[in-house]
Amino acid sequence: MDPLEILFSPFVAMTAHPWAVYVPVVVLGLMGWATPWGGTVVKVAAALWLAYALWETAVQIMTPEANIRVDLLVIAPILIVVSLAALAMFLRKAFARV
C-alpha cells in the first residue's frame, strides 16, 4: 500500500458512507467547545470538517454516480493537516494543565 492510498483511505470510506463524515465534525466540535482545552485551531478544524461534510452531502445528492473525485486531492490534505494541528494543540493544552 503506497502512502497516497493510506492518506486518502479515510476519504474513500467517507464517500462510500457519507454519514461517516459527520463523526470528525462531532468529535472536533466537542473537543473545541465542550472542553476547556479546545482552542481556535480545534474550532477551525471542526468548522472545516463541517464545511466538507456539507460539501460531501451536496456531491452525493447532486452527482451520486461521481466515482472520480479530483476535489479530494485538494480537500483531503488540508483537512488532514488542520486535524493533526488541532489534535496536537488540544493535547498540548490538556497536558499543560495537568
Offer a concise description of the structure:
The chain has 98 residues and is mainly α.
Helical segment count? 4
The span between the termini is 39 Å
Give the overall silhouette.
elongated
Helix-strand makeup class? mainly alpha
The total count of strands amounts to 0
| Alpha-carbon Rg, integer | 15 Å
Oligomer: single chain
The pLDDT mean sits at: 88
Low-confidence stretches: none
Beta content comes to under 5%
Order of helices and strands: HHHH
Q: Kindly state the percentage of residues in helix.
A: over 70%
Major sheet details: none
Keywords: Membrane, Transmembrane, Transmembrane helix
Protein name: Transmembrane protein
Descriptive overview:
Keywords: Membrane, Transmembrane, Transmembrane helix. The chain crosses the membrane at residues 6-30, 37-55, 70-91. This is Transmembrane protein. With 98 residues, the protein is an all-alpha fold. The chain has a domain at 29-96. It is 76% helix and 0% strand. The protein has helices at 3-16, 22-33, 40-62, 72-96. The longest helix has 25 residues, at 72-96.
List keywords for this structure.
76% helix, 98 residues, Transmembrane protein, transmembrane, 4 helices, transmembrane helix, elongated, mainly alpha, membrane
